[in-house]
Structure formats: structure tokens, C-alpha cells
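ENTRY TYPE: protein
CONTENTS: sequence, C-alpha cells:
***
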Amino acid sequence: MFTYNNNYYTATMQDTPSRPALSGNVRADVCVVGAGLAGLSTAWALLTRGKTVALLDAGRVAWGASGRNGGFVLQGWSEGMSAIERRCGKTTAAALFKLSLEGVDIVRETIARHALPGCSPTTGKLSVIRYDDADSLRRLQDKMATDFDFHLDYLNRDAVRERLKTDRYFQALRDTHGFHFHPLNYCLGLAGLIERSGGAIYEQSPMVRVERRDGGHRVITDKGSVECGDVVYCCGGYGGPEFGKLRGAFLPIATYAVLTEHLGPRLAAAVNTRDAVGDNRRASDYYRVVDGDRLLWGGRITTKNLQDEKRLGQLLTADILDVYPQLKGVKIDKAWSGLMGYARHKMPHIASLGTGLWACTSFGGHGMNTAPIGGRVIAEAICGESDRYRLFDAYGLQWNGGPLGPAAAQTVYAGLKIMDFFQESRSQRKAVSHP
């Protein structure tokens, strides 16, 4: 289970070594548990600040959600900025938005400065709406410019249809700051930077427990241990009960993706842009062009992880054809799933869990900008540089509902889908009546 699965990213990944499991006792200033994007980012930020680091993973580097997602690196958080503002106030909301931009810049600058191979960053993301509401989109554009000094391009329906040949979409906002890329190759590149800078990465080394010891901690695995001052949990959706109260604060939510066959000239009859695309539904479709003429398409969420590749291909093919019926007959080359750690408040857990214990996790639904900035602010806290992690104080360890949590989440999702359906149906009927 804890290894690379068959997906587009593993088929196009850079060569990477199999790293040894932890054996015996080692010492480090900090032990980071989880070698996904959050753990790698945290370890790298600590190393650049002079700390020694041991990084543990139950499987391989970035084998989970970090290496098999949509590859979007964008501003903002899973929770909308208006909701963050209501909960935290304007000042904190503005600071959190700036953090999200800093996260985008971390990834972009790391790729450029270290010439990380195979990342293929491509600028641009279209956020499309599936119902007619130009006024609301204009108000959002104005709010982002006025309150957050962030400028988005507005596209009317004709401009959207020039790029996306479908009746499903109406207006859009274009983000020219964000980009999309190959997330697994980025993570593998970070792992290489960490090791070349003296950090130790141990694969196939699941954490069993953490013990308080002599003013520090001892992290126990099945074959070894790490003596350290600080421990950072970066467990993600695959984390288990060994993470204690942190595991009780997020739900493992599954999402799905497919890779189409090479579409050749058929692609331009549907998608005529190299921007990534995401719609405004509660569990949106998101997609982008890869390999020149293939669609990497993701969407749907469930609390039970569906792993039947044929069934996943059928489900997401139906989603593709709902938007682009002109692609009828499209074949799916690969289909895969992944588990995200998703908090009920839709924000990550970036926090102190007690003396020398830290959380940098629950990045489900956020894209690839938030874990890098989470890792940086935790590293700053450990090194005594800043207390920026306190910007997340309003988003603590809210109980996930225990055994009833998944069923409740699935029920909420079903209700949101119904709301989406009626809202979109009204717009489609209106569009037919008044083209």
C-alpha cells in the first residue's frame, strides 16, 4: 500500500533511489514524520536554518497524495477568504492570504534556483463558474484587488468559450500568478536537496510512537529510533492512530484522477488553453493538458477509497463527457485515487501540540502552495525566528466526528451536489431561453 501506484506522475517520474529503513538509534535536532510535500518542505526549511533533520516515512518519498494530485500551485486556501475574514478578522485574513502567495513563490523559486528537473511549471489557472453570475464574479475580482491587492483577469462567456468549447461554463477569473506542474518530480527534487545538504531520509519506517525523554523526544519505529529535540507530524490522509489527537482532527477523504489517451487534433475542439482549469462546484472538476495533447482530469470525493481502475475510468469519463460531449469515445490510459487529510474547518493544522511537538498537516483540498509555507513557518518557530504559525490559532484540532465522521461528511457532500445541480440547471434553462 505504501508505495507508488500506477499513475501519470509515476510513469514520468525522475529516477529516485530506494532509501533504507531506519535501523538502530540516530540523533537529530528535529525528526519530521512523513515525507510528503509538507514533510519535505519542513525538512528543507530546517536544514537551510542550520538544523540537523531525520525524515521518516511509512512508505516512499511522496508516494501518497503529494505525488498524485492535480499539480496546482495557487493562491488562497481551501476555506474561502470571505469565510476566513469572518472567523479571523481582516488583518489576520490578509496575513494568511500573503502566506498563501509566499507558498506559491517558494515552489516557483525552488524549482528555478536549483534547476529541479521534470517539474514543467506552466503559468495560469482559469476558475470557471457553471452558472451565469457575472456580477458576483466581478465583485469577487474587485474584493481580491481591494482587500488583498491581488489582481485577477475577468473573462466573459465568449472569452471562456474561446478557450473551453463547452456550454457548461459561463464566466471565469484567470490567475496569472499561480501555475501547475509535476508534483512528484518536485518532491523528488526536494528529497535530493535535503540529502545533499546532510538531511537523512528513511523510507519504509513507520512511526510507532513518540516518547518524551530528557527534555526532548524519542521517535520509535519498528526497527529503530530517533533522539531529537523537536518532532513535526506531517502525516496526511494516510496517518493512523499513532498520531493521537491529531488523527482525530482530520478525515481521510479520497479523490480521483484519470489520464486520457493522446487526443491529437481532437483536443483543440474541446480545450484550447494551457491554463489549468477548475470549476466552482463544491467538489469541482479540475484538469489540465499534459504531454501536449492529453487531459489529466480530477474530481469527485468520497470517504471510501475506490480503487477499481476500470470503474474510476468510467466515472470520470462520464464527467469529462458531461462537459465536453465532443470527446465521445475518449479512452482512459490511467486512473488512480489518493487520500487527503481534510479538516472540518477546511484549513490545515499548523500548530504547536505541546513542548517540542508540532503539526504541519491536513492540506487536503488546498493545492501545492500551502504545505511549503506551512513547513517554513513551523521551521521559523522551531528556530525562534517568528511566531507566524499563530496566524492559524483559530483553526485548532476540531473533532472529526469519530466513527460517524465519514458518513456525516458523505451526507454533506451529497447535499452540496444537489445544491449544485439545481443552481446549474436554472442557469442552463435560462441560457437556452435567452441565448
